[in-house]
């Protein structure tokens, strides 16, 4: 068998290799134009993994198919081989969705995974590249590990690579072997689909898909889920192929922005507004986010996860009950109403999927979600876009099993609001703001929190002259109930006496400048208050948040957000 030819190569640290909310995200140009930029980061990952665990270990490698992934995969093979890794499982053509990777790590008992994605950020030669490490539970590395990786990147002097390792054709399934090291190209969907089949009743969903009253559309936004969409929705469940759009993975997402929201998925949004389909779904580049729309109806992600939780009995995986429910802090408060009603534990965590992982590993969390179009459960340790779509298909199938007239997504959500009340919810995003004014605006709000000047402040609303009064304000801090670690500075919260909330955060997933996010949440229980337009119903709260408290225009010079959810 071919011996590995291992070389040690001198290098020097690059600044700024600190992983953010979800791994290291950089412009492709920065990664490509700096020799050994990627090598340094990959070696730094291996430097923090205990040698005895690394030796002979299995690692999973794959990504969303964006530009530079193919070259990066070969570099990872070479550095992994030289660092004692025994076996690498790589997706066909280098493609694996983030949730599929999490499933494979767990199913194959791998040591971890290297995921090549910048998620929903644009790709291509001028777009973003991303890399993150996941642990043996299938979830993103905790901060203790990412901080250790970062420290390595600041001290690195050399890396090792096996120069004679490469796999010319990642399109062909099969195993490539060297002495003490192998690479196996695996089907991108098989393991993941096998897991989904243990969670859902595919037969019941097939019946829904075959119902002529139900028209389904899926938009992969030219990301990795095109591969999964074809296999799962079309081949397995019978959705006509013409109802799958943008389902060929592309290195630059077909010159698009693979973020499933009302701004960046215009093709799907247009079809749904025109009433062409009863359910329209989209995934982001790496398949962990989802947007679900009904016929002329926007399903807010915060509502989506609350409704899934409330309908858990429709989903076979949850038939023995729910262990607990959770949401991230800026996500609307709809979820805790369900938790209370079902009498199960509820957790509010900071933004970032990793915070759910500990709760899941401890067996206290079943379903969770975030306003940022992330929904998931403890079947894996990443959020899961296709899973969320299947949940809704299953819930629709369940409600329509014995119904004479078609029960739509909107019907199910309206029923939910009648039972629990409605959280009117919206998020405003201001992208690519200079870091300085963004920080100054946050400092201005923080100052008002610190001096307690906001408490008791009253605002008369323009709509009906009612008064909104601030009850409390803080900088959200979370103490993990499992490992007791404390995460501070997780978003500025303004809470009103009626439970309404305004939240300010700076995005942790951008690659240049700052993105300011402002979140608005207002609860209504009265049945006469459930059917208003979201933006007009929130207008007073929005004005208080943007003008009175943040002075957003003054600091950022922006009149309008780039994206409204
Ligand atoms: C990633 C994480 C999510 C998180 C989101 C926040 O997608 O996986 O868990 O909600 O980032 O993004 P932001 O840009 O708001 O920091
Ligand atoms: Zn993603």
UniProtKB/TrEMBL annotation:
CDD domains: PGM1. Its EC number is 5.4.2.2. Its cofactor is Mg(2+). SUPFAM superfamilies: Phosphoglucomutase, C-terminal domain, Phosphoglucomutase, first 3 domains. It catalyses: alpha-D-glucose 1-phosphate = alpha-D-glucose 6-phosphate. Keywords: Isomerase, Magnesium, Metal-binding, Phosphoprotein. GO terms for molecular function: magnesium ion binding; phosphoglucomutase activity. The keyword Acetylation does not apply. Pfam families: PGM1_C_vert_fung (PF24947), PGM_PMM_I (PF02878), PGM_PMM_II (PF02879), PGM_PMM_III (PF02880). Residues 17-158, 191-293, 302-420 form the Alpha-D-phosphohexomutase alpha/beta/alpha domain. PROSITE patterns: PGM_PMM. GO terms for cellular component: cytosol. It comes from the Eukaryota. GO terms for biological process: carbohydrate metabolic process. PANTHER family: PHOSPHOGLUCOMUTASE, PHOSPHOHEXOMUTASE FAMILY MEMBER. Belongs to the phosphohexose mutase family. This is phosphoglucomutase (alpha-D-glucose-1,6-bisphosphate-dependent). The lineage of its organism: Eukaryota, Amoebozoa, Evosea, Eumycetozoa, Dictyostelia.
